[in-house]
Amino acid sequence: MKILITGEPGIGKTAVVKRILKELGKKAVGFWTEEVRDPKTGKRIGFKVISTEGKSAIFASKTFTSKHLVGSYGVNVKRFEEVALPVLKRALEEKEKVVVIDEVGKMELFSKTFMELAQELLHNPKYRVIATIPIRDVHPIVADIRRMRGVVLLEVTKENRDILHEIVIELILNH
Question: Do 10 and 160 meet the contact criterion of CB atoms below 8 Å apart?
């Protein structure tokens, strides 16, 4: 089973994913991304990737110089890969686990290896995957994933964001 979670930026996709991961515990393998905010101003200055194995790294920042840009953020692909790729490679070996990918978005898709691993996990029926995708098709891969046969596409809204994790858990464990 493949479950895609989408929604407008800032609506709570990652919050839903973190609740799912907390509930699944050791049954899950994957990563999530979080905003990094300036402690003084509270303004967003970057993004951090965190694995279910406890590794983390800031991989996008307004202060990074990079050929990979999304808006005003420079993306350090190597830092992203050092955290995300080991858990996704582990997921290929541990087919009984639920694979969680937050998110398949512009920044993450600068990594060719991530793109290939995500597609392998999403297209192979042997894997149970929960992934977040942007509300808009920001990349051909996102469009492809959104239109895959048999996926369950759920949109996070203000009305459902506090209960959506329960729906996802029920779907993924009872399928």
Answer: no
CA torsion angle 75 34 142 123 (round to 10): 110
- Write out pLDDT tens, residues 123-155: 999 999 999 999 999 999 999 999 999 999 999
What's the per-residue H, E or C state across 104-147? Answer: CCCCHHHCHHHHHHHHHHHHCCCCEEEEECCCCCCCHHHHHHHC
- Give the model confidence (pLDDT) of 60-89 as tens digits: 999 999 999 999 999 999 999 999 999 999
Distance CA 79, CA 22 (A): 24
Whether 132 and 5 have beta carbons less than 8 Å apart is answered as yes
Choose among 172, 175, 159, 127: nearest CA to 17: 172
Other CB atoms within 10 Å distance of the CB of residue 2: 23
pTM score, two decimals? 0.95
Domains and CATH numbers, the chain: 2-174 (3.40.50.300)
